[in-house]
Amino acid sequence: MPRFDFHTHTRYSDGTSSHAEIVEAAVVRGLEALAFTDHGPELKVGVAKEKMSQMLEDIKMVEEEAEIPVLAGIEANVISRYGVLDVEEEFIKKIDLVSIGIHDMEEIYLSDEAHEYLSRAVRAIERQRVDVFCHPFFYNVDLLPCLSWDEIEDFVDLAAEKDVAMEVNVKYRVPSDDFISLCLKKGVKLSIGSDAHRASEVGKIDWALSALKRVGAKSEDLIFDNFR
Ligand SMILES: [Zn+2]
Ligand SMILES: [Zn+2]
Q: 75 lies in which domain range?
């Protein structure tokens, strides 16, 4: 199973390390590839709009020196129920990995929250290129139990059709084995993310590797294969 980490944050958003420190940690941990995915600008802690091009230049610099492939990515926020992202098309064209995350839910009832989350995810995937869906259906708690199996299956079918990978997220330990198995069955690729906010957390992906092993995932089921 390839070891890679496609979900890391630097000081450009709410992380505490620099790009160089993250790459160094990734190499020390024996990763085969790494992606930077700082939060988009609409999240309070996200990268400032005026710093986004500087951020890409920084990534380019470390990428040139790095011993492993380094991808320039973003963890864009889905900011409305219409699936709008907080990054512009122009920016998306310049990066290697478009990850999306849903972070600011306000519903009072968990079931409403789960359905609002689902509708944002569906619309986001329908309207633009998305490579990875981060910590699927996790917002404070796992929202999947609030959705029907049919709803979940329809969503996974859409992800398969649109070629969106689901992330196995180490920080929140989601999604469940059932969900990962369903993704495998439907041909949805899987990504691995530590969701590291400091260099010491980069590449700590054992939980994800165990989950992938439990459900019988193979190397070709991982999005990493697209970048070889
Ligand atoms: Zn996130
Ligand atoms: Zn994150």
A: 4-227
Output the six-digit token pair for 55: 């951020």
Using the mean position of ligand 2's atoms as its centre, give its distance from the Cα of residue 169 in Å. Answer: 9
Q: What is the pTM of this model?
A: 0.97
130 CB-side CA count, 13 A: 35
Whole-number Å distance, alpha carbon 172 to ligand 2 midpoint, is 10
Tens-place pLDDT, residues 47-92: 999 999 999 999 999 999 999 999 999 999 999 889 999 999 999 9
The ligand placed nearest to the CA atom of residue 43 is 1
Q: What whole-number distance in Å separates Cα of residue 225 and Cα of residue 228?
A: 5
The number of domains in the chain is 1
Read off the pLDDT of residues 154-186 as tens digits, 9 standing for 90 and up.
Answer: 999 999 999 999 999 999 999 999 999 999 999
Q: 135: buried, middle or exposed (CB in 10 Å: 19+, 13-18, 0-12)?
A: buried
**Domain at 211, CATH number:** 3.20.20.140
How far, in Å, from the CA of 100 to the mean position of ligand 1?
A: 8
